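WARN no homologs supplied; continuing
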Amino acid sequence: MKQEVRRILRKIKQYDVIVIARHTSPDPDAIASQIALRDAIKLTFPKKEVYAVGTSVSKFKYYGTLDKIDETNFSKDALLIALDVPNISRIDGVDKTAFKEMFKIDHHPSEENFGECDWVDETSSSTCQLIIEFILESGIKLDRKVAENLYLGVVSDSDRFLISYTSSKTFHLVAKLIDKTNIDFTNLYNYLYERPYEEIKFHGYLSENLNITDNGFAYLIINSDILKKYNVDPATPSNMINDFSNIKNVYVWTFVTFDEKNEIYKVNIRSKGPVINETAAMYGGGGHKFASGVRTHNKEDIDNLLKDLDEDCKKYKESLQNNL
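OK structure emitted
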């Protein structure tokens, strides 16, 4: 059994109260991984109190229901497992100081240590892939619903296995998951890709208004009025950004969404060449080399970030021409 799996299993066995959290503004990988891990632990250890917490998102209701908790009842004798989140400040829906111990399971580049049992694997396609690996290696129980959630999380974060960090290990683990649970994976895709007509129209708006520079940088700033016009929420552009990966001669593409409620700009960045997480880190963001994000309250940061990403594309384009 892998060392990380052994340590995590030992901690799960040690605690009677376990809370599983993830990052704010969750995507399918974040919610699917936390609900799947919660349900798998409860199947294996039915006497334990296990909760999955954070803000609910109606479009992800298929994965399951999140829990409401009162940390004051834990008497500081509880374990917090944070999934799919590289830094403590982005954990959603829980008071981190209420727990005796914490650690994370994540596939993003590590930005901050959470605890001695941290398991970070940047080569993994998704956090759901890591949870599959943990369950299969540790002998933790899983049922059909747990397997369906994990499959959808992998498919979503790997963009249907198209992202470069999808590996043979990804396919191997997913195949073992399917063989073990016999899930009807082809019928699961509607839960990821079926959209209301308002979102289809919004997708058309994104296509028609995307700005593309001579350097191969595509971007669009989406204000709150546009979100209201199409009746979509601030998370919708981030759920659509991978749809724009096949534009010829575009190397990096970015959606900037202004969340009026929280007065913050949410930036989603994707690349098929230039390394973007280093540029994102300059503005307090981060992520993978080819899939990153930034959150900022400062409009000037947005202007400078877009200029820097355009410069990244320029240098990348020049490198391609020099190698001809």
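The chain has eleven helices and eleven strands.
OK
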